[in-house]
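Hello, quick one for you while I still have it in my head. A protein chain has come my way and I'm curious about its shape. I'm sending you its amino acid sequence along with the backbone structure tokens. I'd be grateful if you could look everything over and explain what you see. Here's the protein in full, and shout if anything looks odd to you:
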Amino acid sequence: MLAAVDSSGPDAEAATHRAWLDAAAAGAARHSGAPAELLGAYLRLLADAAVHGRRPEPAELIAVRELGRQAATQQVSARRMVDLYLSAATRLWRTVPPRLRRRDRDAVSAAAEAVLAAVDDAVAALIEGHDAERRRLIRQEEGIRREFVDDLLRGEADLTRLAERAEPFGLDFAVAHQVALAVPGGTLVDAQAFAAALERSVADRFGGRDVLVAGREGRFVVVGPGHEAPGEDLGDVVRTALGGARKGGRWRLAAGRAHPGAHGIARSYEEAREALRLAEVLRLDADVVRARDLLVYRVLGRDQAALVDLVEATLAPLAQARGGAGPLLDTLHGYFDAGEVATETARRMHLSVRTISYRLARVAELTGSDLADPATRFALHVAVLGARLLNWPEQDLPWH
């Protein structure tokens, strides 16, 4: 640090001037932990303000704004940059060469005001550049993430390239993954911020890796490890993460099965989508709808012609009942869901046992079915499930 000005010539004075600025820059860098290079010509700008009372030129502030952009690119926080710039200004003023300190009071006061004005202008430009670059980087990262998620869930991208792109997101295709879908019941104020918070919560459960959350088609796609704990899968983890806040109203959750590899993620995603669709059609009210629990519905749905034949042959006579087939079909569905116990069916449907018994007898009468026969009950149960898939009797059965 310079203690006095050497008057032996202009070269010596210039060297002293540089040493003054270099000492202030080095001290500020140590204090803030930010690179001294990010000061650029900022200290020369302040020195000119201290010596000549000059305000920064527009071109100089543009250069400082660019330094703010560089800091954001290097992931140096705005707070640390402000600390660097204010610390540098403080050190520069404290170590002003004696010849400047010996000026009269008015000159020193004017120099101080000029330095403060220059610091204010420079820090404002710095933050403006930092914020602009940070927003650009966020948009870029969002675009990269969105493109990666789209390719991942389509399952059509080159696997080698996809594996390389997965590394920054912490996904390892060597292990199995599972996909869960979360659909909010209402509108979220900031879906992007909510997705980030959900990702942090789920990642904490799995040790911080192999978790990715993204918004897609009005839903939150959650990719997580497939090696779930006994009795708990990704759907349960997401339900727990969403449970306390109840943000977005009541959520609908679905989970695909765990599959290995990148294509396994796309497969699990499609299973979760199908589970959501079936849950809506079948009016399921489970906290988490799991694809593994709905495999029988997928089997039924693969041969629609046979399913229509079964529903038509088995359940069509119910339409002759007073009030149509709807009440009797609902009773059958509730009866099978309740383990074929009339008292439990009545409790769940908020009806009397006598009403349930009457309706079951009416079904037997109209269809000619013997509900005491296991084979008949099985066929009737499958037909009831098929009716739900076909949305009958609300919609006419399709021609085939």
